[in-house]
């Protein structure tokens, strides 16, 4: 029995090494979340000393099981100590209202890959493939498209900054763009 237990521990340690983790954020000093491949979400409530898997797929997936695997998550951000959002492949968005212990999918009509999400001052912004920029002002329950038009819609945006109500994005081809009011019809401005 002690040998099988030791072998099981080694397997668990090895399994965690095979998962790619892509994003991390803390809701407060003690509670944090890491997101990654196959919808994996790890949760800590002791400041990052220990982590527990609360959602996601396994280390090894057979080709026939890929259709059933959860999409990879790329980024996570907390709006406050309880509400957080994670985004990923195929427009996949999940939301927590209990500091990251449980997560539910937020259905949207947007299917482009999402690379980053950022929360600040009651605003959530998600960016991704082909100029996809989504925002939510209702704690991540509903998302609206505000991506730039014209030639800017073909670029991928990875970085998000929010400053006094203005949203800055940076990404492909060294572009930095800005929008001062998300709810208005104002256009995105090229900063660089």
Question: What layout of secondary structure does this protein have?
Answer:
Blueprint: H1 2-17, E1 21-26, E2 32-36, E3 41-44, E4 52-55, E5 73-78, E6 84-88, E7 93-96, E8 104-105, E9 114-120, E10 123-128, E11 133-136, E12 144-145, E13 157-163, E14 166-171, E15 176-179, E16 189-190
Antiparallel strand pairs: 1-2, 2-3, 3-4, 5-6, 6-7, 7-8, 9-10, 10-11, 11-12, 13-14, 14-15, 15-16
Strand order of the largest sheet: 1-2-3-4
Estimate the global geometry from the Cα principal axes.
Answer: globular
Largest sheet: 4 strands, antiparallel
Sheet-strand content, in percent, reads 35-45%
Question: Helical proportion?
Answer: under 10%
How would you describe this structure to a colleague?
- By secondary structure, the protein is mainly beta.
- The protein has 1 helix and 16 strands.
- The strands form 4 sheets. The protein has a 4-stranded antiparallel β-sheet with strand order 1-2-3-4, with no helix packed on it.
- The N terminus is likely disordered.
